Amino acid sequence: TTRARPAPPPPAAADKTPGLDAFTFEYRVGWPASLVLSRHALIKYQLLFRHLFHCKHVERQLSACWLSLQDAKRLGSLGGALAASHTLRQRMLHFLHNMEHYMMLEVLEPNWHVLMLRLRGAQSVDELISLHASFLDRSLKECMLRDAPLLKLLAKLLTICVIYADQTRSLSAAITAAVGEAPPLRAGAPHEERAAVRRETCRRVEQLISDRRYARNVETFGQKFDDELLALLAELRKQAHREWNLAHLLARLDFNHFWRQKQATAPAAAPSAVGE
């Protein structure tokens, strides 16, 4: 029987844990399947699920940013003010799409096929348990959930994406409200009147963006994201010679050597405190 329920956090941290961070799947296993799907094995499945779920959630948050800013597109002159935000969001989505593709299609699916092939030759329950445990351990390792430096860098990148998405969503709500407060135009209003209302709305929205220092915040997020991504790529490059799967991920994230060239020309930056 499968059921979804939030995993109960410790009482002291219950009021600080976001619901989505505590969400996981519980699977009630009966005898004799519990010999293979033991509690220890289920915890490993939950680690994999929660990591994938969190990445997908962050991706959806970033995609929602694009949708939420569509009201601003009607005010054509704001394109320059939001261009840097759109560019940063695309960099973040490129990172997440490639991470998800790597984990699902280059780690979990191939490892599952290998497990299915090996299970056909299993001669005992002990061998079956061993093969299943090997599949889970290999998947956790290749998804970088057992590598502290890589996992820490991934957590920082995801945190930056979430904070950026939250601030962009807050700004878009304010822009939508400002656009909605524009005086309604009477039927058949002349072009000059419509243009005047449009200019006034643009002025109010531009002032709103300026007051919130959104452009500066986007620049800060972009710099932090780039720094952490460069650190992740450097760590992947360092480990790729002994972990071929990480070489595949590195090739996907830096397919045109853009980040390698950026790292070669950029001055050394202090580590970011985001996510610490």
Q: Overview of this structure, please?
A:
The chain has helices spanning 19-22, 39-68, 70-73, 79-119, 125-142, 148-180, 191-211, 214-239, 244-253, 258-265; strands spanning 2-6, 23-27. Helix 4 (79-119) packs antiparallel against helix 9 (244-253). The chain has a two-stranded antiparallel sheet with strand order 1-2. Helix content is 71%, strand content 4%. With 276 residues, it is mostly helical. The protein is built from ten helices and two strands; from the N terminus they run E-H-E-H-H-H-H-H-H-H-H-H. The longest helix has 41 residues, at 79-119. Residues 10-14 and 269-276 have low confidence and may be disordered.
**Mean pLDDT across all amino acids:** 78
Low-pLDDT windows of residues: 10-14, 269-276
Q: Specify the biggest β-sheet.
A: 2 strands, antiparallel
As a percent range, the share of helical residues equals over 70%
Q: How many β-strand runs?
A: 2
Number of helical stretches of at least 4 residues = 10
Report the structural category.
mainly alpha
Strand order of the largest sheet: 1-2
The percentage of residues in β strands lies in under 5%
Order of helices and strands: EHEHHHHHHHHH
Radius of gyration, taken over Cα atoms and rounded to an integer in Å? 24 Å
